[in-house]
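As the work plan foresaw, the team has encoded backbone shapes as discrete tokens. One protein thus recorded appears below exactly as we store it.

:::
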Amino acid sequence: MSTTSLPASARTPRLREALLAADFTADGLLERLGAPAYAALARSETVPALRATRGDSPLDTLVRLFLLQRPVPAAAAALALPLEESVEDGWLVRGADDLIRAAVDVRPYSGPEGQDWFIVSDLGCAVGGAGGIGSHEEGVVLGVGGASTTLAGITVRRPVGSALDLGTGSGIQALHAAQHANRVTATDVNPRALEFTRLTLALSGAAPADLREGSLFEPVGDLTYDLIVSNPPFVISPGARLTYRDGGMGGDDLCRTLVEQAGARLNEGGYAQFLANWQHVEGEEWQDRVRSWVPRSCDAWIVQREVQDVTRYTELWLRDSGDHRADPAEYTERYEAWLDEFEARSTKAVGFGWITLRKSAAAAAGNPSVVAEEWPHSVEQPLGPAVEAHFARQDYLREHDDAALLGTHFTLAEEVVQEQVGLPGAEDPEHVVLRQHRGMRRATKVDSVGAGFAGVCDGSLPAGRILDAIAQLTAEDPVLLRDRTPQAIRLLVEEGFLEPVRGGAPER
């Protein structure tokens, strides 16, 4: 990889036109390489893609240059893009053998509405690139990875006046934000990252961002935003050897500081969304630890997606940096340093997940909604609409007591199915499960009353009237049924199985 000077962007539109003309796009790559070779490239296996690009078309040349990072003849490069400009501007390097090599990684990336974008990063630092991830130098800038696409998918995408991408890296989140924010600010402690963000936005045809160098919120002073996103250097490690992943603070202090300070930088109703790691400390519930980070002015939804014990976590990040290929004694020394760090902090495991904050008047008034849960199962991306719906449901539940709940009309959410679990041939199921096929794809057990209630919720009757009908059918006391059921209804609303009908005429 190279950490030399970066390309100029003045003539980027001409380069973009050439890349698009050659169909050097996400869809074009899939069609040219075929699904097996395309998938292999994502695993850093290049042989199938090399075999698929033996031709001399402009697309073959661009794949070999930028994705496989192989030299190509100057004549072939000249047919694929404005060669002399690209060399002069620093996108390409001409060798003494008149072979052309890429100076940076340029990776096609499909936007949420099918936009043809390009992510620019250091050579060998894009997931699925020719070099793969590993053996990184200090200061390098990575391209697209699973973490960055996850954050892009969970972010609430509504039109906003201002957005902040904190720790922008190669500019992926800033690129997404530029589609729905009037003003985008991108910050990073690494000046190279800001330059790569500039290139990513320019080559993708997006509006430029306000680029500021510095740590955490320091570069933006007292400015406030409608949306804050960050895929920070969250790795819990001894020291700060690699800027792109090691935050330089002890333990999970960087993630804690980021969350704690976000509330003061949000406008009312604004969202802050982060990826984070947190420690699982002996004698402490992880939920309590992360809840304590939430600013008093904010509601929060904290989702733990994965937990690794300290040995697996250490091995993951030592492999990420290529230390497993180092001298065995040096590898052992570094492994010991990580374990010493965890032992000193009484850390037994590390959790990974998402944290979403929303600034709200109710939270500021002392009635926050803070949900911390573990959900390691598959979800449907993009999840942004489900995140926004989660907070809307919390608002509804906070504003409605049990009497109001029973007067509300509900509908069953889309694509919720009922599953009955029991022994074959049994007259009645042991239990009934409601399962979602959208959003978080939750499943929850319900009793016969809950299943019957959910099944008839079509918005035509208020909840109390439905319970009265169920009581009549089951010969239960309707008063007792009304008393014991609201909590179950609240859970079904909170988890998104039932949706209140807005503006429906309440009845009691």
Summary: Confidence is low (pLDDT under 50) at residues 127-135.
